[in-house]
Please model this.
Amino acid sequence: MTTQTKNIYPAIILLLLGALVIVFAMLAMDRADSYVANGESHGSQSEGGKTHKVYEWSLVTTWPKDFPGLGSAANNFSRYVNDMSNGRLKVKVFGANELVPALGVFDAVSSGSVQAGHGAAYYWKGKIPASVFFTSVPFGLNAQEMNGWLAYGGGNELWREIYAPFNIIPFAGGNTGVQMAGWFNREINSVEDLKGLKMRIPGLGGEVLTRAGGTAVSIPGGELYTAMQTGVIDATEWVGPYNDLAFGFQQVAKYYYYPGWHEPGSTLELIVNKEAFEALPADLQAMVELASRAANQDMLDEYTGRNNSALEELVNTHGTQVRRLPDDVLALLKKYSEEIYEETAAKDPTFNKVYKNYKAFGEQSKAYHLISEEAYYKARRAN
Amino acid sequence: MTTQTKNIYPAIILLLLGALVIVFAMLAMDRADSYVANGESHGSQSEGGKTHKVYEWSLVTTWPKDFPGLGSAANNFSRYVNDMSNGRLKVKVFGANELVPALGVFDAVSSGSVQAGHGAAYYWKGKIPASVFFTSVPFGLNAQEMNGWLAYGGGNELWREIYAPFNIIPFAGGNTGVQMAGWFNREINSVEDLKGLKMRIPGLGGEVLTRAGGTAVSIPGGELYTAMQTGVIDATEWVGPYNDLAFGFQQVAKYYYYPGWHEPGSTLELIVNKEAFEALPADLQAMVELASRAANQDMLDEYTGRNNSALEELVNTHGTQVRRLPDDVLALLKKYSEEIYEETAAKDPTFNKVYKNYKAFGEQSKAYHLISEEAYYKARRAN
Model:
């Protein structure tokens, strides 16, 4: 029996040693996983976080990489989700033409060849005429109203509905605030001065100008400065003081006209491929949604802060002449804008559906903001 | 030797069994933690998430629980961080007087007896006169400008600086937009009509009214309706159409005056105890910051969307008479407001420091928004 015992003990010890090794290995694997998942973490390793799948997204944009203002939202979004997810959702931002051309962003996200994109909905109006309402339309909602309409007026639901067939989920991802009417080398004193005006103005604004007798031309951003300098065009719109000053338009244009009737509160978009979004766990989905909301807010904050000082510099340092478009010009442009909405609505049921909702919200906003925001702007100038 | 061997084997077996139990227990604890941590999770358990410490915060507010508009930001903040953190940061919201009185919020967060609070900075002006600039001041910045100033004009840095001695980190946590001037049972046709006016109007607005010959009275919200009905007061300010309609002021007041000169863009605050914030890992800190930013945006969106339809209902259904304060009244109120700023700045160096920064940003905003947002509001009414 002692001999038998002698034979059994080592076997039990080996068995136990084996079990110990296995269990210890399991523990070690668990711990090791946490270091992989938290490769870019800023502190939660000490909390013992572990074993999270890492999602890597490519985000393509319609702007050049790191473009001031417009391009900052994609970078902010990437940083926000990285910081909040401890690196579980990594979003690599590509500028226009790095992965796909600027106007290839929508298709790339739709097909799933990339997971996300940043741009402006009105770029896709050839595909979806109603998309214009989700950026900005002539005489439409300003930034505060756009945000209100999207979140509380049914705008986001409509936006999701019209993008659904393309496998894309849209989020508001920035706002420029009301833009300037643009840089002109011809004085606009009456509606007559619009006739023959050669102006770089894209989208619906361009259609309106054409109806008023002008010529809307399409020129890439990189060629605008020279086109203004050489007189190829008489005028161009861009964004507002912050971007325009950096561009140097004050060197090649005589007059800086306001207000930006054609883009009163341009919303940018963050678009996400549906399958890519649905593949995320719910916490990362929440981060995507809230990071886009913070990026949306941040861009308007940046423009609000920086347009202020840029306008001051344009006027005080560069002697820029700031002019207001005359009332009759604005009234005519508004009339033609409304004609275009009605005509398009009659042809396109989706456009009509979005237009009706947008217009009803706009009428209420107009009534309320007349006695609130607008009345306040006027009141604080009281002497 | 066989005897010795017989004696040693059981000891080794016991030792190994013990080690196995300990290692197995460690593994089990790790796994168990993950289920505790993810008690409210929405899916990341399947990702294998585990062992995260759960932080439980109490958030006290200066509003009644679930108060429409003002109270929604705290609830949204709580939901946002819970969703994004998978329940690792749980924020329980308490209405006024549930844990501490409304005006005890700041002290409770400062002392660390609770981790967070939601209210308005100007409630603490007795302690910190400069705090008024972080909510709203008469003839000051509107919502868009407040957000721009805080994020890109140095506002947030100053806010953190003045709250630092109190162990509190502030974040913008909502905005009402410009408010209405209030409900009146006396017509205001000239500055003479301000004399003897008994109005419920707190803060700096009340000081301004007093200087203009009125009597600023302090009445709790719950007693306002009766005070207006019985003529104890001639007028009261509240918020704007959405909140005011729900309150029923249209039943006890003749005139609804605009614009809200005294609160042109009231920012609410989310305040966090410094140690509580610093105890969080970096990812949860990022969530707190970005959730507050999203909540900040959401409140303005909600007011923008809901004030619209509420004004329509007040006018069309209840026949509310909407009136504008006359120019000379606005000019006088503005003059007295500026006097108060200058006098307080002369006495309080911190007030002076914040005022100078705020004022400089305000002057630039005034110049830019005159040709942008204000000019646009006017332009779109063109006929």
Q: What stands out?
A: The first helix of chain A runs from residue 2 to 37. Chain A has 13 helices and eleven strands. The CA atoms of residues 142 and 314 of chain A lie 24 Å apart.
